[in-house]
Structures are given as C-alpha cells and as structure tokens.
Design goal:
Layout: E1 2-7, E2 12-19, E3 22-30, H1 32-36, H2 43-65, E4 74-80, H3 84-101, E5 105-109, H4 110-116, E6 129-134, E7 139-146, E8 149-155, H5 161-171, H6 178-186, H7 211-226, H8 232-261, E9 265-269, H9 276-289, E10 292-294, H10 306-317
Parallel strand pairs: 1-4, 4-5, 6-9, 9-10
Antiparallel strand pairs: 1-2, 2-3, 6-7, 7-8
Helix pairs in contact: 2-3, 4-10, 5-6, 5-7, 5-8, 6-8, 7-8, 8-9
The structure holds 5'-O-[(R)-(carboxyoxy)(hydroxy)phosphoryl]adenosine and zinc ion.
Length: about 350
C-alpha cells in the first residue's frame, strides 16, 4: 500500500509518499519568498503558485521512490481548514489523479495531519496522549484516544499562538515568516528586562487568549519609542519577553491537561512546535511530571505533505471509502464531518 499525500492549504506546496515501509519520499516548496514582500500570505498568489509547482513535485517524489503513478493505492489531500483557493488546487489535482488511476481519493483534515506527524518518527508514541496543536491558525489541546478519536479540551478564544508571533514580528519590523524571526531576535534579548502577562493562566480551564498579549507588546513598544529608547536591543528584549510569555502560557496549560486527564504522553505539533524555547520548557515541565514529550522532526512541524500522506495511509488502512466529490472546507472543526 502506497499513498500520495498533497498539502496546499496555505503557503507551502507539500507532496509525499507513505507506504508499508514508511515514508518513501517527500518534497516541499515554500512560498515564503513570494509572500515576504507583501508582509503576509496573499491568497491568490498562493493558489497560483500551487498550480505551478504541484505536477513537478509529484513527478519528483515518484522518481525518488522509484515507482510510477500506477503503483499508488490512494491519493490523499488536505481538504481544510485553509485558504479556499489554495485548498481547491490540491483537492482538484488529487481527486482527478485518483480518478484517473482508479484508486480512492482521501480528504484529510489539516490539523489531523499535524496531530499525527509525530507518529512518522521511529518509535512512535502510543495512544492515548494529549496533543498540543500550535500553528499559525490554531492553538488547541486535544485528548487523543485513537485514530479519529479527538476530544477538544481547550483552544484559543482569539489569536492563535503562531498568529501572535507573526503579528509581533510585524510590529517589531522583523519580517515574514514571523515566528522564526521573533525566536531568533529573542536569543539576543535580556530575559530580565520585561515581564509580559501570561494570559488566562490564573483561572481554571484549558482555553488560551493571545490578543491581550499582542496589545501589551504594542503598548510596550509605543512607550519605548515615546521615551526615545527604541533600538535593536530593546527590540530583542521585547521579543524575548513576548516569547517567554507565550511559552510559559503553553507550558502551564499542557501541564494542566496532562494532570487533569491522568496522561503521561504529550505530543506537540504545528509550526510553533519548532520553537526551541518552547521545546526546552516543555521538556523540563514534563520531566518533572514523569511524562514524555514527542515532537515531529523540525521540518514536519510546519506544513508538509508527509503528514497528509501518513494520515491518508492510516485512513485507507482503516477502510475509509470516500466518494468522488471534490470537497474542501476552509473552516472545518476537527471531529466534524467534511460536509
Ligand atoms: O503549522 P504551520 O506551518 O502552518 C499553519 O497551519 O498555520 O505553522 C506556521 C506558524 C506561523 O505562525 C509561524 O510563525 C510559526 O508557525 N512558527 C514559529 C516558529 N516556526 C514557525 N513560531 C515560533 N517559533 C518558531 N521557531
Ligand atoms: Zn499547518
């Protein structure tokens, strides 16, 4: 069994092959350079670039794995959530290819892809576990008991953590993509100069809120500018305080989710999961609890085709038999049917 996975929900074109032997090949084209001059993702440019890149990337993975299209058992694609035009490019391409090859086409939830990404690694974690999904569009905690059995425990009531990183990067003039830029600036920051609030950690529950932190950051920068104290060091110090606040908030809620559910495994997925400081702090907190943390390799933290190929493979093995429709759902809560 070999499944081709196609990811086009936002600004990365990801393509991969997952088979009985594991991951056979994967390729990624990042559109970061295309969108950088606009300071964020331009949906129409994203769709057009996916159209340009998909065929070549699919050919490349087939060649790398030494197989042809007729060896495929199914084609899986990200059906949502994401940008509708970008999703439709991947969905139409994948559905048509599956139809032409006479194999099943499998729509995959983007966040399920992220959530299963740590299972691509050797020695994968066993169910049940707590999953922290931290990306540009989502900050969510799930209890995962089995494939397809995802219970939402808490989520951000406003901005996602990655979105807060991206907006902070813009505010600090650090450029795009924001998360890695803020993280890099933070390494030069003084950890003792500012302390930013840890939103919603002083009350019970597992929800998050990051928009107040964004405003706090904005006000701090405005005050520094008004006092003529804005310079490279101040920028790094603010980046450091912001990162510490986001990381501390995420760590507190993960610890709470593990304790409240009596779980000993935490799985972290999504772009913000690449953050070094977050990993350090989560590792330390879980060690104290006698729990383990599992991450995908760095390149599979952000959007990629491997996680979609893997989720498609698992669903195919589970006997999922979808119909011929080309369906996408730009806003799609995990656990709800596609349509
Ligand atoms: O999962 P992902 O690639 O795309 C979405 O589905 O959103 O996540 C992208 C997000 C962006 O907001 C990006 O700024 C953030 O992940 N990110 C990071 C880091 N690397 C990527 N945030 C903080 N630190 C990082 N090292
Ligand atoms: Zn993503």
């Amino acid at each position: 069994m070999i499944v081709l996975g196609i990811e086009t929900s936002c600004d990365e074109t990801g393509v991969a092959l997952y088979g009985d032997q594991g991951l056979l090949a994967h390729r990624l084209h990042s559109q970061a350079a295309t969108h950088a001059e606009h300071g964020g993702v331009v949906p129409e440019l994203a769709s057009r670039d996916h159209v340009r890149k998909l065929t070549g990337l699919v050919r490349a993975v087939l060649q790398e794995a030494g197989i042809s299209g007729t060896d495929l058992s199914a084609v899986a694609w990200t059906a949502g959530p994401g940008l509708i035009g970008a999703l439709l490019v991947g969905a139409s391409f994948a559905r048509s290819l599956a139809y032409a090859l006479g194999v099943p086409g499998i729509p995959v939830h983007h966040m399920e892809g992220h959530l299963l990404a740590p299972l691509l690694e050797d020695n994968p974690p066993d169910w049940p576990f707590i999953a922290l999904l931290v990306s540009g569009g989502h900050t969510q905690l799930y209890r995962v008991d089995a494939l397809g059995d995802y219970l939402l425990l808490g989520e951000s009531l406003d901005d996602a953590a990655g979105e807060a990183f991206d907006k902070t990067a813009k505010l600090l003039d650090l450029g795009y993509p924001g998360g890695p830029k803020v993280a890099e600036a933070a390494t030069r920051g003084d950890p003792d100069r500012f302390t930013f609030p840890r939103p919603m950690t002083d009350r019970p529950g597992l929800d998050f809120s990051f928009s107040g932190l964004k405003t706090f950051t904005l006000n701090t920068v405005s005050d520094l500018k008004a006092a003529d104290a804005w310079n490279g060091q101040a920028c790094a110090d603010v980046a450091r305080a912001f990162e510490e606040a986001v990381v501390a908030t995420l760590v507190i809620k993960c610890r709470r989710a593990l304790q409240e559910n009596g779980m000993r495994t935490l799985v972290v997925a999504g772009g913000v999961g690449a953050n070094r400081r977050l990993r350090e702090q989560l590792n330390a907190a879980c060690e104290k609890l006698g729990a383990t943390v599992r991450y995908p390799r760095i390149e599979f933290c952000t959007d990629n085709g491997a996680m979609i190929a893997y989720a498609g493979y698992r669903h195919l093995a589970d006997g999922q038999a979808p119909d011929l429709a080309v369906r996408v759902r730009p806003r799609w809560p995990l656990g709800e049917p596609l349509s």
